[in-house]
């Protein structure tokens, strides 16, 4: 998160600093051309800041830039008082003052994708800030080349006309709403969705939704994805054929949650989940976006849901171990359907030229939840290379938000690049490991895993292949108690004193193989491999159709008889 703060501060300083310098150069020096060039640079910085901080207030900077550009324009024309340029100035002033309120009003409107509606007004309103910056850049260029002021006026009036149309439509929506609701609400009522996937999260979290979309689509029932942040709309809409609706307000949610809905699924414990929980006519089901022994996987907030779908009995024990009391009937063991494409392998040891997947997690929001091994990973990586291993380095999507983690990750990628050049081993990192390949692809390509405490270990467990878990010393002697999944893996200490011992077990002898298969059952359920995802699909259908009663899977039958330390 510190990386985000640094980027925002840099963008803020560039926008404000360049705007002030551009105005001073134009207003108080004879370097009009240089001042106009600085103004264009400031406009570019403002555009970047709007991408980094979509809610940034840059009205003061915009006014300053507009004033500087107009002063420079008047100086370039050198015709004394120009009424056309004065009119252009008035139009620009009006636009500067109106664009912000119009954008805010548009942001209060419901938006949708994959629905047969054309709600153009909110989309245009959201882009007015960028349009204004572009208009000022056009005026600055016209000033630089001393073009007739009427050209700048015409362009400004065209933008003003567009703003006027947006304003009128927004006013109509607000003060004279349609009796049947918004076009999106009418389209949803016609579509008749039976369930929704609710999502609210920080930027970069869309993977939490996309991992569940294929399985929700396999239910074969109409559904929608309801978002609370607008930046996710294009990405998630491209990942599904289902309607995707952005609801900025509680009123918008009232419109989107049409009477045909019966179930709401959730993939995290976002603070805004409570905005949907208030709809008591729905059955609320928590899916999570991974299974791990991290503290968030036993969040007390889970108790607010009607049902909690968990991968295996170990997840139920995790809540009890954390002192979170939730009635047993709320839990449903459904497996982890995302692992169905992972290849299960039982192989002969030792491995001669292994491929090792390394998946460092991020630093977390709090120091006591920081399980990121990047600060101490270099010796481990070097030792793997010495053993002739090919490494797939797949970092957490949030890694770049911490500048220190980003630097540490860059150092590791430099090591891999140098080794690939020297040996020809096809190490993978960055986009090649994180976007071009899925996690399943990485698991299937690898022979062993080194991971921090995270949900990756649970997924990897399905393959039957060995894994090592880094112990960063945060929990001391309680590490194996708090993270039982590490008992079936090779625990790598923070000081790397047992590095060779761990790598020997991981890549050569593998004495924990038998224990790992028992752990697999507890963490991932006991569903047949050829129909593994049916555990989730059947459970979801039971919520959608109370009469649905498929055969009880073995994992659910045997939950009560499994030893807590199997």
UniProtKB/TrEMBL annotation:
The keyword Transmembrane helix applies. Gene3D superfamilies: 3.40.50.12580. The chain crosses the membrane at residues 20-46, 58-77, 83-102, 123-145, 151-171. GO terms for molecular function: CDP-glycerol glycerophosphotransferase activity. InterPro entries: Glycerophosphate_synth, TagF_C. Keywords: Membrane, Transferase, Transmembrane, Transmembrane helix. Residues 543-566 are annotated as: Disordered. One of its GO terms (cellular component) is membrane. It holds the Pfam family Glyphos_transf. The keyword Lipoprotein does not apply. It comes from the Bacteria. This is CDP-Glycerol:Poly(Glycerophosphate) glycerophosphotransferase.
